[in-house]
Amino acid sequence: MKTLQVLLTISLVLITIGLLAQEFEVYVSDAANYSTGPWQVAKFDGNGDNPESFNEDDLIWPQDIVILEDQEIILISSLTGNGYITKHDIETGEVVGNFAEGINGPTRMKIGADGLLYVLQWYNGNNFVLRYQLDGTFVDEFTSIGVPQSIGIDWDSDGNLYVSSYSQDFVQKFDQDGNFIETFIDSDLVGPTNIWFDESGDLMVIDYDGGAVKRFDADGNFVDVFIPGLSYPEGVDFFPNGNILIGNGGTSSVKLFDPDGMFIEEFIPSGSGGLITPNAVVIREITSVSVDENKMNEHFIYPSIGTTFYLRQDFSDEINSINIYDMTGAEMTTTEIMTTGIWNSGNIKPGLYLVVAKVNGSMLMQKVTVIKE
Question: Where does 291-370 sit in CATH, by number?
């Protein structure tokens, strides 16, 4: 790793490249034998090796994983009638409390552009999409109607919400206020689970019983099979280079595909780490920076999650420069923060960013999450 002195003297391009040394961890939720277990969340390194159990004692049919870096916790949903979402220490996996309780079978979870956690419910009856603040405070039942056995969630570029139903073989569309618009897809699916929009606006749907990832256009029309030859697929995440990880329950493995859907390798081989039925796959980026460890926890920007960020006044006279990077190492244009003390994230995409400040020959780092209000 480059020393601080080298970082301060090389060119800006090399700073951008050398500043962020990306490492990854991959977390996999294991549904095992479904309602009977044995359940676990397993952790692997960025190459799919060195498996270890993150937690196996405090789960009931785990469904999804959400990492809250700024709180140093990981959320795991458990599929029970009086379902709950547990909070786990990000390093040890130990339960540190319940994030939420009394959910009617929580499945998929995802943070929206409003900074709230959206939670899907599986069981019949009350299966509206729920919203929570990131401290676990309940906000509301967001959708105007429920979606039975809901298990896939994403938003289009206009902020409309889409939710898949495993039992009904469809994808429902809601507006930004949660009002039902239409059944967006009602054919060509046999047990849909995860869904996501690609950069072109097509909706990708993992078809669990259909053994494939299927592509639909912006009007909900079937286009083609994006990835064929899968067996009970569920759980998906993406590396920064666009490569795709997908859990494959039929082989107790996690497969790696390129951005065009071409198979690369068995990223996590069959049964590695005791894996039986992967149903959630989450990549955690661990960014190493050439910074004095004592300086890494200094919070000089507030809030840590938002759209507009402010420089702490007691730091403003000491900071020589501020640079903001996305998680690929690309620098954002943020000159106004040095002159006004305010950074409005504007048209920057929601996500995790690294704010790096140079202070009298030292360097401070802080991660912030950009959301859209």
Answer: 2.60.40.3080
